Amino acid sequence: QIHKPPARGPVMLRKATARLTVSRCTLMPVRYMSRWGHVEMGPKDPIIGVTESFKEDPNPSKLNLGVGAYRDDDGKPWILPCVKAASERIVSENLPHEYAPIAGFKSFVDKGLKLAYGDDCKPLNDGSIAGIQALSGTGSLRICGEFVNRWAKGTKPDVYVPTPTWGNHIPIMQDSGLVVKKYRYYDSKTNGVDMEGLLEDIGNAPDGSVMLMHVCAHNPTGADPTIEEWEAISKVCKKKNHFVVMDSAYQGFASGSPDIDAASLRLFVEDGHQIALCQSFAKNFGLYGHRIGTFSIVCDNPEEAKKVESQLKILARPMYSNPPIQGANIVNTILDDPALTKQWFDDVKTMADRIITMRQMLTDSLQKQGSTENWEHINKQIGMFCFSGLTPEQCDLLAADHSVYLTRNGRISMAGVTSKNVDYLANAMIEVRKKAPAS
Fold first, then answer.
1. Candidate list 247, 344, 347, 375, residue with the active-site label
2. Catalytic annotation on 119?
3. pTM for the full model?
4. Mean pLDDT along residues 32-46
5. Of residues 283, 344, 347, 375, which has the active-site annotation?
6. Organism's domain of life (predicted)?
7. Torsion-angle region of 329 (φ positive above 0: left; ψ -120 to 50: alpha; else: beta)
């Protein structure tokens, strides 16, 4: 006779489940190690830290001189009239929101490169410049670093950056797998370019090194070489066969003239350098959040340019696949329309002229309020930033005693200075210089 187990009704099942639950609760719980518990807290970005401290300060007279974005004389963000008009036109045309090609919109890239290299640039007109749309300055620099890492001949070259330079230059190149070194650039005694040190350092660098340079409005110092000094730099770079990478973030924004601001770039191309150009439209078109720019390399001939461009697209594809379209449409619309292009020339000059005026007003106010120091470097420097010469301790005192916030290297964003706060700033600078004199 076959033995059949008793049927398990609902009551027995509930009892069995209860016993199982009790036994599970009485077992020692298994402790798993956190998968990401070893991750360390990263340091705050210096600019973000300045902005956070500014926001937390209740003082109605507080100043944020750290942000790298243009403000009008009321301290408000300014939408360029040409950008507003182009944006309205794009909306009215009901353009589709389709993917852009990997290399971006060709019409935009062509117009952007012409703006930078100039109408009479022979390599550009010959089709010997490889260019793609990029994610503003940071994205174009990263594409550049990755391209050098993958395609530089022979021993991988080191990248030389000026001392000081924009804070993102070094991590971008390091994260691209390149070794970063420095060349002398700023002379704190003269508050200008250390040409002797610069020429010596780039002359002593190994042949074929990568030299990263600011086209104009050097960030953070605002100190630019003269055209004669650029000629000397070009000569040394040519002799050493250096690969010059030019970062153009402020064309038109520095002097008010896009042609004057592109003089160094065009000089190097005329001298026969096969440079790389990292071009951003964030500052000079006020399109900060659109991440719009280009990356280009001057090549030997059109066939070489096609090969290089094919490799740039291969790099871009796994990085971000396709660039954003709105910023490209805006810039393309402006540069495609003579009236809007003229409006842009007026708009960018408006921004540059206000910054230049604020430099003069700050210098005048420092003198009128009794400072006996020479502040003429504020006027001589160019672009959005002023390297004030304030020490880290003095910058700390500006924040603590006067609610004036800037990075500890003394960089002042002149865009944050207005006719309404310039006297307050000048007085604060004088006070902290007295309280903590520079050694």
1. 247
2. no
3. 0.90
4. 90
5. 283
6. Eukaryota
7. alpha
Rg, Å, the chain Cα set: 28
pLDDT band at 4 (very low <50, low <70, confident <90, very high): low
Active-site choice (62, 111, 166, 344): 166
Q: Which CATH architecture has domain 99-336?
A: 3-Layer(aba) Sandwich (3.40)
Position 8 pLDDT exceeds 70: no
Contacts for 105 with CB less than 8 Å, ≥ 6 apart:
133, 325, 328, 329, 332
Instruction: Look up residue 425 and give its two tokens.
Output: 């700033």
- Nearest-angstrom CA–CA distance, 266 and 277: 11
Amino acid, single-letter form, for residue 44: K
Give domain 46-78+352-433's CATH architecture. Alpha-Beta Complex (3.90)
d(CA 203, CA 158): 14
User: Is 375 noted as a catalytic residue in this protein?
Assistant: no
Mapped onto helix, strand or coil, the DSSP state of residue 101 is coil
175 classed as catalytic: no
Which sign, positive or negative, has the C-alpha torsion 84, 335, 264, 170? positive
Contacts of 412 (CB under 8 A, 6+ apart): 65, 385, 386, 388, 406
